[in-house]
Write a structure and sequence with these properties.
This is AB hydrolase-1 domain-containing protein. It holds the Pfam family Abhydrolase_6. The chain is an alpha/beta fold. It has a single domain, classed as Alpha/Beta hydrolase fold, catalytic domain (Rossmann fold, 3-Layer(aba) Sandwich), CATH 3.40.50. It contains 14 helices and ten strands. Strands 1, 2, 3, 4, 5, 6, 7, 8, 9 and 10 form a ten-stranded mixed beta sheet that branches. Helix 2 links the parallel strand 5 and strand 6. Helix 6 crosses helix 7, helix 6 runs antiparallel to helix 10 and helix 8 packs across helix 9. The radius of gyration is 20 Å and the shape is globular. It starts with a helix and ends with a helix.
């Protein structure tokens, strides 16, 4: 969201008026990293409505280039790709949740991974695809199956007009992990959660309450404060203005107009990606911007961003609470923190606060800003794979 537009809106001078679909499986190519620089910038994988059989990617050779920062990816192993929708019921309303499954199917010992996207204006399963394929495609005594799930109100999931807040998102995650018919129902208490940004912190909070029992958690670029509170603070006067902005964004006609000005336009999305989402502006291609812009045009797209931007999805209210969430897991759940070299100053400070903190098993740093799993997926995949091997391979 452009700072000038936000500042103008938050100024006191501004007045405000007032059943699951069947799983589709296809043969698919998994990936592994090859140490050489990228040769070209390729278009991101198409959304589900545009997926072509036999898989999400098509190519005429055995090498797929994912663009600057991604590295060269050699397609070597045959794996399964499944996509589907799970019906989540909230307040007696059925909500279709989009998910993808990535698995190789050649290892007897398989560890299940749930990957949840970073909560943002343009959150999507696409950010985890290359990481999932890299991990799943590796050979070893311990294999991996990855399920990527879009949050309600985001990505390719349904976007109903709910009163979204951190508790609603936590409730979704708890039901996803505990429901007998969910995409991760057969994990047998051996499910690893991998999440980015607010998603990771919400998962840690739920685990600390005992509502979910993951076997490990990897928090990639964990955050806890929404864009406006982290910039303008949480004073009572600001909370009032956040409420006005939130209410305006939810109004049928004027809400779409305001959403188009602040969020749903390609210039705004490009500005965000180049300023703080990606570390290297050269990695922000027109295809990425187009893909994310399309997400903002989906029916109901403005409801979750209205809550996220104004702090309603924040799982805690202070750094002290943030650090304490991880301390509650000390000795019970292995926790990996993946910080980034070029995160925005305030977000970087929150990540650094977890270095050496109680409950944090391992702390690493990778290239990137707020979305390293998309900008530098092979670096993130390498750290995740090492953590998984250290945590579980020795137990077999």
């Amino acid at each position: 969201m452009p700072p000038a537009a936000v500042a103008a809106f938050l100024s006191p001078a501004v007045a405000v008026s007032s059943r699951a679909l069947p799983l589709r499986r296809a043969r698919h190519l998994a990936v592994r990293a090859v140490a050489s620089p990228p040769a070209s910038k390729a278009k991101p994988a198409p959304p589900p409505s545009k997926v072509r059989s036999p898989g999400l990617y098509s190519c005429s050779s055995n090498v797929l280039h994912m663009g600057s920062g991604f590295g060269r990816i050699e397609l070597t192993e045959i794996a399964e790709l499944g996509t589907g929708k799970w019906e989540w019921k909230f307040e007696d309303k059925p909500i279709n949740i989009y998910y993808e499954e990535h698995e190789q199917g050649t290892s007897e010992n398989v560890k299940n991974i749930l990957m949840i996207p970073t909560i943002s204006d343009v959150s999507t399963v696409e950010e985890w695809r290359v990481v999932a394929k890299d991990i799943v495609g590796r050979k070893g005594e311990l294999g991996y199956r990855a399920t990527i799930v879009d949050w309600p109100g985001l990505g390719y999931s349904d976007r109903p007009s709910l009163n979204y807040n951190a508790d609603v998102m936590e409730s979704f995650l708890v039901q996803l992990m505990n429901s007998p018919n969910s995409p991760v129902a057969n994990a047998d208490d051996e499910l690893v959660i991998v999440g980015g940004g607010h998603a990771a912190t919400i998962a840690v909070r739920a685990a600390g309450k005992g509502l979910i029992r993951p076997s490990a958690i990897a928090a990639v670029g964990p955050t806890w404060a929404g864009p406006l509170p982290i910039v303008f603070g949480r004073g009572s006067d600001m909370e009032t203005r956040y409420g006005l902005l939130r209410g305006t964004l939810r109004v049928p006609a004027i809400g779409w107009m305001m959403y188009n000005v602040l969020v749903s336009n390609e210039k705004s999305i490009q500005s965000q990606y180049k300023s703080h989402v990606y570390a290297n502006p050269e990695n922000v291609t027109p295809d990425i911007i187009e893909s994310r812009y399309e997400l903002t045009k989906r029916k109901g797209a403005r409801y979750v961003p209205a809550a996220f931007l104004t702090g309603l999805l924040d799982p805690v209210q202070s750094r002290e609470e943030f650090v304490q969430l991880f301390a509650k897991l000390d000795g019970d759940v292995p926790v990996l923190i993946v910080s980034t070299l070029n995160a925005p100053k305030r977000s970087k400070a929150e990540m650094e606060a977890l270095k050496g903190a109680k409950g944090v098993t391992k702390f690493v740093e990778v290239p990137g800003a707020l979305l390293p799993q998309e900008e530098y997926p092979l670096a993130v995949a390498e750290e995740l794979y090492s953590f998984l091997q250290e945590s579980f391979a020795a137990r077999r």
